[in-house]
Amino acid sequence: xxxxxxxxxxxxxxxxxxxxxxxxxxxxxxxxxxxxxxxxxxxxxxxxxxxxxxxxxxxxxxxxxxxxxxxxxxxxxxxxxxxxxxxxxxxxxxxxxxxxxxxxxxxxxxxxxxxxxxxxxxxxxxxxxxxxxxxxxxxxxxxxxxxxxxxxxxxxxxxxxxxxxxxxxxxxxxxxxxxxxxxxxxxxxxxxxxxxxxxxxxxxxxxxxxxxxxxxxxxxxxxxxxxxxxxxxxxxxxxxxxxxxxxxxxxxxxxxxxxxxxxxxxxxxxxxxxxxxxxxxxxxxxxxxxxxxxxxxxxxxxxxxxxxxxxxxxxxxxxxxxxxxxxxxxxxxxxxxxxxxxxxxxxxxxxxxxxxxxxxxxxxxxxxxxxxxxxxxxxxxxxxxxxxxxxxxxxxxxxxxxxxxxxxxxxxxxxxxxxxxxxxxxxxxxxxxxxxxxxxxxxxxxxxxxxxxxxxxxxxxxxxxxxxxxxxxxxxxxxxxxxxxxxxxxxxxxxxxxxxxxxxxxxxxxxxxxxxxxxxxxxxxxxxxxxxxxxxxxxxxxxxxx
Length: 546
Hints:
By secondary structure, this protein is of the alpha/beta class. The chain has 19 helices and 16 strands.
């Protein structure tokens, strides 16, 4: 076979799609590379959905390599889910930076772009941990032969990445203890293997399904008839390709567009990736905005929706896209399970994004939630370490409010953190400091089913048993849910606490949960215990003490 001399836009787009095909096949294996013995292995899913968003952004484009790489980066930026997805999006953002203004790339240019990806990946992680996806990428790049042709370069890149991946348990004791390699690194290697297949002409005809989206609501057109008044305006979204014939791409500042949008619209979310500007704005005059935008470029995608219809839909669903009345503080949080969602709304959350363990929301999900809230400051409670990076990324992109991402790593911290917010205090720094202090006094324990044997500091876990844990500490194990929960309560120091909330999951019968609370009340007679039907997946019980 003839060797590939240079990388162009068509080959790169094929490489992205083949990377997604490869990752789709390996997804379950990557999900199962789980260092913790509960169902939290969703790395493969998160990386695949992120990559699919990048593929979708490049579909049908006739453009340069630089432009396709930039479009893929933008798609992944918004579609990023979980820490692994966010890091993957930053890897491809680094690739796009390294390929900026490049029509086609030889080995030297591709190697430079990979080095740029390494730098961007390390910048994305506040405290880089070796033995993870970033190590596999860095050591792969260092071991690749940049003096060879492009095909040989990728072959040596893969070989070095495999060696690095195999070595990750030696760098992270938690991996060695679990007997697995790093799941993010394994996902990245799978993607690059697929990309290498495409580079060598081995392209699958398998269709790439678009990233999972929320169901499209049925629009009742008679809710805005010939006698209606346009009360809410239009939700307007578009991708604008900046054109060389209209602006100087090297000096153009997208702030010109953002400032204009803020003058004529509301709920503005706008940012630039390469030559593409992504815009979301609420306006009564979308035509004027579109005309103004054509001074700078041309549209790649365009969506305009009458928000009166969306307003009606909001009475029956969570798909509202209009702003609430203005206020000082807005609250966004993440939870899964009807009972938990209602509990968070009951203590003042404006938007509860569906998600949690095994179901991480995307950067776009957070941006959509921010756009619905008309507040000066929006406090965000991710309630999961694997969700915080997507929230942080959305906070950097959103310009219509001051976004503060709280360090909530559990449902309990989020619940009491939101409940403690002093909405009458005009000093946001004091409010945030008080919330963080309250969350530090909360302890949360969870009970779930063990998916493999494991050894913890206080207990041996057996596959199929119920395991109780707090943070990453395994604290109880039993064939019965109630026993595992009671032992968990003992080990998190429930006796020294004042209040306990018990959220029982969707698979737990009400009478079983009530009996558990009776048993706990008999054991802790001075503790105020409240039972709630959280209906959450994954966790049979969530125990929150303060």
